[in-house]
Amino acid sequence: MNRRRWAVGAWLALVLVSGQAWTGSCAAARAADTRVRDLEGRAFDPLAHASAPALVLLFTDPQCPISNAFAPEVQRLQAEFAPRGVEFTLVYADPERTAEEVRRHVHDFGYPFPAVLDPAQELARRAGATLVPEACVFAHGELVYRGRIDDRYVAFGKQRAAPTTRDLHAALTAVLAGARPAEPWPSAIGCSIPPPLPER
Questions:
Q1: How much is the pTM?
Q2: In sequence order, what are the residues at sequence separation of 6 or more whose Cβ sits closer than 8 angstroms to the Cβ of residue 78?
Q3: Is pLDDT at 8 greater than 80 in this prediction?
């Protein structure tokens, strides 16, 4: 009987270890297969690597003036929330954007966190992003907020002198407190993400 119990226990341990190895290999395969790239051309999936309590994907573009106007606020948010474990990643989903353009944009606007190229718009589809600037917050792999950074833009070409509601700040505060950001999420105002190039 003891020998039989030992055999069952050994079999279960083997299944567990094999399952963990399979899960790890699948995660590695997903990261390798993704068409999202960092600025050095390496495959990188921010969602697959995220271990923080919250991950902010900020969709942006050098040619969108509204997006560029939010750079100082984004930097303030990163300075406040990064020490509390929140990760920030810039996502450039315009398929025409080059690594050199993005590198220059990151430098010129002083963004202190990673940037990725998403020409096939894999991250945009997973997050449901259609505009820049649009902030998408993931907690434990789940999308919990998608919308504007704050309400300074009332409409395209029309803005307040200062925001009255800091929506992304409120969303991150809620997530770190163990709560879900309130819905409905406020829509972003900005520039449309162009469609991906047709596959050859």
A1: 0.81
A2: 86, 88, 112, 113
A3: no
